[in-house]
Amino acid sequence: MKIKIMFSAIAVIGILFAGCKGLTGEAGPAGADAPALVILQQGISPTSSYSGVKDTTIFSNQPSKNYGNCGPSFVGYNGGVDYGIMRTIVKFDITNALPAGAVIKKTVLEIYAQVTPGGVTVTAFAAPQLWYQGSGNCDGDNDILSGATWNHSITGDTPIAWGTAGAGGGNPVSQPVAVTADGWVSIEISAETARFWADNPQQNHGIVLASSNETTNNHITMYSSVVLGSDRIYTPRLLLYYDLL
Fold first, then answer.
1. Which of 111, 186, 208, 240 has the smallest set of CB atoms within 10 Å of its CB?
2. How far apart are CA 202 and CA 152, in angstroms?
3. What is the pTM of this model?
4. Over the stretch 92-136, which tens digit does the pLDDT of each residue have?
5. Closest to 243 measured CA to CA, from 41, 30, 99
6. Is residue 160 helix, strand or coil?
């Protein structure tokens, strides 16, 4: 399937997103005792050399295809035969992102979303196991990097199945967030989750973004981390607020 024909506006997404302001971040606690802030975003922050984001969308109706090198990513449901349930897996490597002695106080995932008229309520769940982004294109072809699919977290010569298909089974790490309009969406990830990632980098498998209603034709469309050029500022970003011991 060609993901880019999934919605008629895909050709103008760049125009729709172009009106958004750049890297500002959610307003955090203020005052003299306010935590410091690090923003992680592929190819942008904390420096242009940061490359610690990986993400891909998995589709229930394409259980063996990987889309790790496709520009748009999706959360929700589309009843078309090619799509079905759509979930996006995303991971930020926070190794060396914080100074020594930092204690994470608040963590916010920001995504820039285009939403279908009915809106979508999104929750972040802990990704349950190691997975690979892969290199599949928007047809789900040409993956040579053993990327995740609906059925498998790792494919290739030695595939590893998800414990529950669709990267399911993880505990929620955010409250549900209603997405009803185009623009930046803030999803607060539990600080305990981010602290666990910092203390246990090998067990940082990221999160799974899923809709609370996976049977109704509504979804959001986002830019994935592989997007380049001027649109890169609209790719997912992670805000880490921290104090120093």
1. 186
2. 19
3. 0.89
4. 999 999 999 999 999 999 999 999 999 999 999 999 999 999 999
5. 99
6. strand
Q: Whose structure tokens read 């106080």?
A: 105
State the burial class of residue 83 (Cβ atoms within 10 Å of its Cβ: 0-12, 13-18, 19+).
buried
94's CB contacts (< 8 A; 6+ apart) are 40, 52, 194, 197, 198, 201, 204, 238, 240
Tokens encoding 232: 């890169």
Q: Across the chain, which distance is largest between two alpha carbons, in Å?
A: 55
SS3 readout for 80-148: CCCCEEEEEEEEECCCCCCCCCEEEEEEEEEEEEEECCCCEEEEEEECCCCCCCCCCCCCCCCCCCCCC
Rounded CA gap, 130 and 245, in Å? 31
- Report the candidate in 40, 22, 20, 59 with the shortest Cα–Cα distance to residue 189: 40
